[in-house]
Design a protein that fits this description.
Blueprint: H1 3-17, H2 22-38, H3 41-58, H4 61-77, H5 84-101, H6 109-125, H7 131-144, H8 147-159, H9 171-182, H10 186-200, H11 208-213, H12 215-220, H13 224-238, H14 245-256, H15 261-271, H16 281-303, E1 307-310, E2 313-316, H17 317-339, H18 343-352, H19 365-372, H20 395-407, H21 411-425, H22 432-448, H23 452-469, H24 472-488, H25 492-509, H26 512-528, H27 532-546, H28 552-569, H29 572-586, H30 591-607, H31 611-624, H32 628-644, H33 648-665, H34 668-684, H35 688-705, H36 708-724, H37 728-741, H38 748-764, H39 768-784, H40 788-804, H41 808-822, H42 833-852, H43 856-863, H44 866-872, H45 876-892, H46 896-909, H47 917-930, H48 934-944
Antiparallel strand pairs: 1-2
Helix pairs in contact: 1-2, 2-3, 3-4, 3-5, 4-5, 5-6, 7-8, 9-10, 14-15, 14-16, 15-16, 16-17, 17-18, 19-33, 20-21, 20-22, 21-22, 22-23, 23-24, 24-25, 24-26, 25-26, 26-27, 26-28, 27-28, 28-29, 28-30, 29-30, 30-31, 30-32, 31-32, 32-33, 33-34, 34-35, 34-36, 35-36, 36-37, 37-38, 38-39, 39-40, ...
């Protein structure tokens, strides 16, 4: 075997380890090209066999027809050249061919039957069971809609013995399950699937394929939780593979038929561009029809004009739905024309008109919370005490009662009285002053509804009516509220002067409570103007005015604003005392005021690191709060405090509620960020699958908001979670996305890190050549950013990856680049310990690399002094390992006298239970034997339990 041929076989083995997809397909095609050019017939056959599998599993089955036919012809031309394993694999590939032939409408049906007949002949001639043949004849019968033939072949299939060419114990039941479901035999289908979940499945397609086949029977039999779980688990596996586009269509249909149209749309958007490179026309038809169903349901729910993201821009729900409906219908007609039946058109028409099987099936914990919440709003807080409203109260008495509640901080009670006023006196003709008072109250109601524009209009009307009534103080109060509303709404130029003027008037002319209120509004203006010192000074004056009244609620409200200012100014000691005092005094005022005061105090306690006390404060806030935003923030802050206390499970519960409440309140931005926090909490709680799901939802939401930095932080978090879940391909995809997103000079270090981490993943997967490419990209970026230690590390890793990729010359060149860069790094441990560590690691790994390619003299020279370098920075474990390698290399270089003291020192430096102890003892004994000191060698072996030889 020539060196070139040996390298190509090595490359083919590496390609075999690659994940299915475009990368593997391109790599195997390159091997085929080189094998053909060099006339390497055995390699060409092996590469095409691998290519057939790669094309089918990678989403390009049409190409598999060519490689399968080539291999079949080569086998038939000289069967003796091929071993039994190759013969069996070729017979297995017949199944790929038959299944793929049915999915291309332009291939005559007769050709499918001819391949099936050839398959049956070969199976018979080889003495194999016809189990797989009957399963495929059943498949073709179902495809064309021949119910009698499908039933006949199903029965033959079920009674025929399995053998080594039968599909695995997961895939085989999957196709049987699909037939039973099509016949309405749901219970049988579910029972047939149970062994797959008991661990009998042995291939990469399970259990996700059988889970998706069970979606409909689970729904029809009421096993809703199992249906939701099956969707979540299977979609996680299907979504990353182009070859699974038809299965992804089933997930989309499932969403449409369970009230999850929004999630269905997310899936459609994620995979819509795959239609341009669908594995087959059949898969394209499946996805297009399922997507059209989701879109038609969205359109029917009033979202016809909503945008759908696709390559090149956006399109409306209605327009895309019509486009995909035509696309799917036309393809179905082409299949029917080929098959001579109407089965596919009827089936697609039924899917396009499918109705929900359940009204709504929550697909996540947060979705369940949304369902449990009261319609039209978030979960209610505690019910306040009933408001006593005298039956005989007249208009003025009701207005007095409402305003007294409002002055005392009981806003909800005030609103209830105002509503009673409207119910009793809506038709009454009010005098100007009463009408003004009611308009002022409506302004406060609208503030509670977050309608600042409406509140401003009501207060403007109140000011005019108070003017008519000759009540100048209340006119000024109303105008002050108008001015502040404008400032809060982002129009300070229209409101600041009004706040200033009304404050000056009221401080000079009004009683203490009105003066305090005016000063409080001025302080808010100062905060808007980013003048916190001035705001605090104004609030101190307001507090002095409030102290002249008996209105504890007013005093507390002003102190809550003072606390805000102290927080902005970083005056922690004053804030700590004030927050505790305000919380204590708020207990005598009103539940809502207390909830806000407890929220402030809890935040201060958290900032001080008193997280347990903070949780107590947030508990109190939640126990009394009725304001949805106070409840939401109390839960959010409590979750963060729980995480600081390492109570991740409790934090998860709170964050689930936060996400749900954000959805109820329409707080899209808050919900997106909360999902990210929820994902992190799930991870800390050890619930990795849920962490991934929450993180994925967060990325979608953050991208929609345009929060690029936070979305990328979440992507990086997800990449780590995927690694922990052993889903390296998903992690690699995110790292690739991040490397692109983090483009530009300022982001060079981060981009380099993404490439390096991708290289680490590939290296652990034994995809060494690809790892080397990523390490090279990392080294370039680190170099451009002038991060020399990191650049050296990337080159070192690249050299090792190239060595294991059997590209020795390139590995040695990379090692040389690393050496040249390392020579310029500081060698003084006190100056730069990181540089010393990297230089030492380069010496250690370089020595191993050189020894592996039989350059022992260089490797011994290289390892000299490495152990001392490690110890100079207190890296004692690494120092012992370097000493051990040094001794081993000396021994291999036939220098036992020098090896013996080095190995003895290494052995003495290892903890007794350390893994390398046995190897170190064996090496030392070997060195002693080589020096003619057999008794000492035996003693070492006996002491450490090492066998001779």
């Amino acid at each position: 075997m020539t060196h070139n041929e040996d390298s190509l076989w090595h490359l083919l083995r590496e390609v075999e380890r690659m994940p299915f997809g475009a990368g593997q397909i391109a790599a195997v095609e390159e091997v085929i090209e080189h094998a053909d050019a060099a006339g390497l017939r055995d390699l060409a056959f092996a590469a095409r066999m691998l290519a057939t599998n790669a094309y089918v599993q990678g989403g390009e089955p049409a190409k598999a027809f060519v490689t399968f036919s080539w291999c079949l012809a080569d086998f038939d031309a000289d069967p003796g050249r091929h071993d039994r394993a190759q013969a069996l694999e070729l017979l297995w590939h017949f199944k790929f061919a038959v299944r793929a032939l049915t999915t291309f409408p332009d291939i005559p049906l007769d050709r499918t039957y001819a391949v099936l007949d050839d398959m049956e002949r070969r199976y018979r001639d080889g003495g194999h069971s016809l189990y797989a043949v009957y399963s495929l004849r059943h498949l073709v019968a179902r495809h064309i809609g021949d119910a009698d033939a499908a039933r006949h072949w199903y029965e033959r299939w079920c009674v025929t013995p399995r053998d080594e060419l039968s599909d695995c114990a997961g895939c085989d039941p999957t196709r049987k399950v699909r037939y039973l479901v099509s016949c309405g035999r749901d219970e049988e289908a579910i029972a047939l699937a149970e062994p797959v979940f008991a661990g009998q499945a042995t291939c990469l397609n399970q259990p996700q394929d059988i889970l998706v086949a069970l979606l409909v029977p689970y729904l029809r039999t009421g096993a809703l939780d199992r249906a939701a779980d099956a969707h979540r688990r299977a979609y996680r596996a299907h979504r990353q593979h182009l070859a699974d586009l038809a299965s992804i269509a089933e997930h989309v249909e499932f969403c449409a038929r369970t009230g999850n149209e929004a999630r269905g749309l997310e899936i459609v958007e994620r995979h819509l561009d795959w239609l341009d490179r669908a594995p087959s026309p059949y898969a394209a038809m499946e996805f297009a029809s399922a997507a059209a169903l989701v879109l038609s349901r969205l359109a029917g729910a009033g979202q016809a004009d909503a945008p759908v993201r696709r390559r090149g821009g956006e399109v409306s729900v209605a327009a895309l739905g019509e486009e995909l409906t035509r696309f799917a219908t036309d393809l179905a007609a082409r299949f029917d024309a080929r098959n001579g039946t109407t089965h596919q058109s009827e089936r697609i028409a039924q899917r396009l008109a499918a109705q929900p099987l359940v009204e709504y099936l929550p697909l996540s914990v947060t979705a369940r919370r949304r369902v449990a919440a009261a319609p039209g709003g978030p979960p209610p807080g505690p019910k306040p005490a009933p408001v006593v409203i005298p039956d005989d109260a007249g208009p003025s008495e009701l207005l007095d009662l409402a305003e007294e509640h409002f002055r005392q901080g009981r806003t909800a009670a005030a609103i209830e009285v105002w509503w009673a006023f409207d119910a009793r006196h809506a038709e009454a003709e009010l005098d100007a002053r009463s009408a003004a008072r009611r308009a002022e109250g409506r302004g406060h109601e609208l503030v509670e509804d977050e309608d600042l524009a409406g509140a401003e209009a009501q207060w403007q009307r109140a000011a005019e009516l108070f003017g008519e009534a000759g009540d100048e103080v209340r006119r000024q109060v109303a105008l002050g509220k108008v001015g502040l509303a404008r400032c809060v709404a982002g129009r300070p130029e229209a409101g600041a002067d009004l706040v200033e003027q009304t404050t000056a008037y009221l401080v000079a002319q009004a009683p203490p409570d009105r003066r305090a209120g005016a000063l409080s509004r001025l302080a808010v203006l100062r905060l808007i103007q980013e003048r916190p010192e001035d705001a605090l000074a104004v609030l101190d004056e307001a507090a002095a005015q409030a102290a002249q009244t008996d209105l504890t609620s007013l005093q507390v409200e002003i102190d809550l604003r003072r606390a805000e200012c102290l927080g902005v100014l970083g005056r922690a000691d004053e804030l700590r005392d004030l927050a505790a005092s305000v919380r204590e005094r708020a207990r005598a005022v009103d539940a809502d005021v207390l909830s806000r005061a407890a929220l402030v105090h809890g935040s201060v306690l958290s900032g001080d690191g008193q997280h347990a006390a903070a949780v107590d404060a947030f508990d109190e806030a939640l126990s009394v709060a009725s304001d949805p935003m106070v409840r939401l923030n109390a839960r959010l802050y409590r979750a963060r405090a729980q995480l600081e206390l390492n109570r991740a499970a409790a934090a998860v519960d709170d964050l689930v509620e936060v996400v749900a409440e954000c959805a109820q309140l329409g707080r899209e931005e808050g919900g997106a960020f909360a999902r990210f926090e929820l994902a992190e909490a799930y991870r800390r709680a050890g619930r990795l699958t849920e962490a991934a799901e929450a993180g994925e939802e967060a990325v979608v939401a953050l991208d929609r908001l345009g929060a690029q930095d936070e979305a990328d932080r979440c992507r990086y978090f997800l990449a780590d979670v995927y690694r922990e879940l052993d889903e390296p391909e998903l992690a690699l995809g995110l790292l690739d996305t991040l490397a692109t997103n983090l483009d530009g000079f300022d982001n060079l270090p981060a981009r380099a890190r993404m490439h390096e981490e991708a290289g680490d993943i590939l290296y652990r997967l034994d995809r060494d050549a690809q790892a080397a490419t990523r390490y090279a990209a990392a080294a370039r970026a680190y170099g451009q950013a002038e991060l020399r230690v990191d650049e050296v590390r990337a080159h070192r890793k690249r050299a090792l990856a190239l060595r294991w990729a059997d590209r020795i010359d390139e590995a040695l060149a990379a090692l040389g680049e690393a050496d040249a860069l390392a020579a310029r790094l500081p060698s003084d441990p006190a100056r730069d310990p990181q540089a010393v560590w990297e230089r030492a690691m380069l010496g250690y790994e370089g020595a191993r690399l050189l020894a592996g390619v039989d350059r022992l003299t260089e490797s011994v020279d290289r390892i000299e002094g490495v152990a001392a370098a490690f110890r100079s920075i207190d890296a004692y474990s690494e120092g012992v390992l370097a000493e051990l390698l040094h001794g081993e290399l000396l021994l291999r270089a036939d220098r036992p006298a020098e090896a013996e003291p080095v190995l003895r020192a290494a052995l003495g430096g290892l903890p007794p239970d350390a893994d390398p102890v046995g190897h170190a003892a064996w090496l030392l004994a070997t060195a002693l034997d080589a020096l003619g000191r057999a008794d000492e060698a035996r003693a070492v072996r006996a002491e450490y339990g090492v066998e001779e030889g």
